[in-house]
Amino acid sequence: MHETLLIADSSPLIVLAKIGRLGLLPKLSTRIVVPTAVWREVVMNKPASFDSQALSEAPWLEVQSVTELEAGNLSIDVDLGEAEAIALASRFSDCVLLMDERMGRREARRLGVRVIGTLGLLREAKRAGLIESLSNEIQTLLNVGHFLSPHLIEEVLHSVGENPYKKTAIP
């Protein structure tokens, strides 16, 4: 996967920062954009946290505004960052939305937006040779409190030829 445009929601950015993998984003996409609400959520509202510092210093991260009308046109109740990310992604036919929240992902797909989550992004990094062990990355995600279903872990590890019953402690 090398995408031209990746629109990111806050939770994947935060968890990637927590596990030290923000640097994968510019290796997997030419352009990484967040809406203003996401920027405020992860940088402005968390000024002392590690993830906000890492994000605020990322030279490859671009911020774009979304109108209230665009964000308000969604048929589901999601937070402002998710709404703006979905609205921004729906502007472009050639982008991928990086989002973990199930309701937001469903709404984005309903609007014709391609969606990938944190785990899917790490799977693509493994396929691109950017990480050695997806199993180790999953364990790190679990260690920082990121929830992943055991079935999803098994499925994703299988998809890259890793043994799902080795190393990763599935909760």
In CATH terms, the superfamily of the largest domain is 5'-nuclease
User: What class would the helix/strand composition place it in?
Assistant: alpha/beta
Which CATH class of the largest domain applies here? Alpha Beta
Write down the CATH topology of the largest domain: Rossmann fold
What would you say the CATH architecture of the largest domain is?
Answer: 3-Layer(aba) Sandwich
Per DSSP, the total helix count is 10
pLDDT < 50 runs, ≥5 residues? none
Number of strands: 5
Strand content: 5-15%
Terminal Cα separation, in Å? 29 Å
Q: Using only CA atoms, what is the Rg?
A: 16 Å
Q: Give the SSE string.
A: EHHEHHEHHEHEHHH
Global shape: globular
Q: What number of domains?
A: 2
Give the biggest sheet: 5 strands, parallel
Please characterize this protein's 3D structure.
This protein is an alpha/beta fold and 171 residues long. It folds into two domains: 3-118, 5'-nuclease (Rossmann fold, 3-Layer(aba) Sandwich), CATH 3.40.50; 120-159, no CATH class. The protein has helices at residues 10-18, 25-28, 36-44, 50-56, 68-72, 80-90, 102-110, 118-127, 134-143, 150-159; strands spanning 3-8, 29-35, 61-64, 95-98, 114-116. Strands 3-2-1-4-5 form a five-stranded parallel β-sheet, sandwiched between helices. Helix 1 (10-18) crosses helix 4 (50-56). It is globular, with a radius of gyration of 16 Å.
What's the quick description here?
The chain is an alpha/beta fold. It is built from ten helices and five strands.
Task: Describe how the helices and strands are arranged.
Layout: E1 3-8, H1 10-18, H2 25-28, E2 29-35, H3 36-44, H4 50-56, E3 61-64, H5 68-72, H6 80-90, E4 95-98, H7 102-110, E5 114-116, H8 118-127, H9 134-143, H10 150-159
